[in-house]
UniProtKB/TrEMBL annotation:
Its main location: cytoplasm. This is 3-methyl-2-oxobutanoate hydroxymethyltransferase. Belongs to the PanB family. It comes from Pseudomonas carassii. Transmembrane segments: none annotated. Pfam families: Pantoate_transf. Mg(2+) binds at residues 49, 88, 120. CDD domains: KPHMT-like (cd06557).
Amino acid sequence: MSTQTSSQRLTVPDLAAMKGRQKIVALTAYSTPIARLIDPLVDFILVGDSTAMVAYGRRSTLAMRLEETISHTRAVVDCTQHACVIADMPFGSYQESPEQALRNCAQVLSATGCDAVKLESNRTLASTVAFLVDRGIPVMAHVGLMPQFVNIMGGYKAQGLTEHSAATLHEDARANLGAGAFSLLLEGVAEPLARRISEESRQPCIGIGASPACDGQILVTEDLLGLGGPRKPRFVKQYADVAAVIRVACARYANEVRQGEFPEREHCYGC
Ligand code: KIV
């Protein structure tokens, strides 16, 4: 849990300053009920493109649309006051050119009031990150297992396990840090490399499936609550079975309606 006591929202420089002082805690949120609950508990909330799979049941994150990113991010910003809010730029909204990336990132920032954007970025896209940062867009660069590259990778596979993969990924990380990303998100990265990148970098490295060596951790909230889909990655720890709680409550409701036990007098007007 964050040790911040002020009611002011954490900023990008606040997150950067936490490096080496305290672990950074992050979760995803796409909607008001979850965002409100996690806001006081975390340092940043990511409105991930995982929205496409978790909230809409689509096959991959490639199906997320820019207007959906804006709509979900605005909902999360509007109901929170403590955590820094970061919007995940959807597939196809930033890869074409630095100019396209600037146009879409600026739209997301101005339409939602979020604090920063996240881009899945390798060495090629690092020049886009530099272009954005130079123009006032704070960028978290996502490296390692990049779900928007699923068709190139041929599946969701941990990265940095071979010498060649580790060297390539190390270069991606260095290029994005050099480009001015305020933080790296390392997904599905082998522990020795995640440790090396975290130790080398002056910017905080947030891990998901990238070992405790990172400066902070993030999980998809639905995964830790037991509300995720059938595919449970090795890096997920389930902290609760909220699905079971929902099933019991809704079954009780359905039964009471069918038996004529709900609603009762106290739920009625004028009687
Ligand atoms: O979209 C998402 O939820 C992510 C995870 C890595 C947290 O990017």
